[in-house]
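Suppose you are handed a protein chain with no further information: no name, no annotation, nothing but its sequence. What can you learn? This example shows the usual starting point.
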Amino acid sequence: MKLFDEISRTGRFDESQVLDRIPLIKKTQLSNLKAHLYKQLLICLRLLSRQNTTEIDIRERIDYARVLYDKGLYRQSLEILSRTKPIALRNNHYVLALNILEFEKFIESQYITRSIENRAEELKKETVALTKKIERTQAFSNLALQLYGLYLKVGHVRNKSDHQYLHDFFESNLPVYNLDQLDFYEKLYLFQSYGWYYYMNQDFANFYRYTRKWYELFEEYPEMVVEETALYLKSLHNLLSSLYISLSDERFINMLKVLLAAPAQGLIRNLNQEGLYKLYYYIHLVNKHFLEGSFSEGIKKMPELVALIKENPYDWDKHRILVFYYKIACMYFGSGEWSTSITYLNKIMNAKTPDFRGDILSFARILNLIAHYELGNQALLEYQVKSVYRYLGKMSELQDVQNEIFRFLRKTPKMSKNDVKTRFQELHDRLVKLSESTYAKRAFLYLDIMSWLESKIEGKKVEAIVQRTYRNRVGPSQE
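A reasonable first move is to predict its three-dimensional structure. Written in structure tokens, the prediction is:
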């Protein structure tokens, strides 16, 4: 308790300070004391979490059954197991249910507790059915996780070769299934898998279709909203992402309201859930400003987000933080604050040993070139164009859209003032044609190059162009 009080008082562990302030503790004892304190804290946290987490409650009941078994109270042990198994099955905790079945079989095989002949057949059937269900669920969850890992590394498909690889991988790992026979978790991981597959393929209509199915699954199983709050929040996040990409403004705003209502509904009950909520809140707050073109209003929230990233109380991973830096850079770019945009792009480009999201790393460099162009850094721009061109070539990220941008930026130092506007229009027209290509879509997801070009052609701010596009899209009745 003295050690706990000392750490609580200072907020950190300093070995020399602890030994100095608590003479009763010897240096040789400190390691064991820390381990014991850590264990006691975990026990307390487990007890506090028991009422809110069904899984912990089930595990505790299994532990009680084991204690009774060790005392030779076999019937009482089986009674606890028989009462706990329906709870596990009802909440879709099939691995725990299988553990209970295995324990029941173990007790029944050693002690005559009831009619063993009928009981043995009954336990066998339950075990076989559960094992098949768990195997299928694992196959779906493995596929969803592998696709997510592939997305973190590569991003969207870049060409026919990428598409074929993804298609073959997906089809070869997708289990045979009958949708009507699947339970909650099997459907959940199935919809996740299809969602990632179509998202990476830039088939955003089907991406929306499966993110909607994922969200509606929680409406079909409302009790799972509390049981699997993290997955519920993620379903909202992915549905909002699909609506953002498809420019479904009204539906996006309606679903954003559902996300914002989560704390008032009592769904945010621990630090993990709070971290996920904050993560999705800021992602879609930024996306809302991108849709509306309200960059000047959006940058007012950026210092708050930057401070949260710096403190990082939720332990967000490096990938999340780099994505946030890119979104922040785009927000400042849209408001015309080129230097600040470059500051955040540099955080991405200077990231140590990045082994994921080659697309984010690549488009950060392209946006950086455009920001330097806006600042008039022609000498620096000429050198950086060559550097970025070589970088994208090594990363296999060099495609038609990037080539057109490079070709334009290379020529800018030689352009006369009278010639610039014409060149901007020519680049705009070429990119309009390229935007119709399936594999060129991703370039326009990460970089609103068309709005920037229109701003240069018309002599207006990027913000004004995006706001006009937004008004034309939603109409006067929905503004």
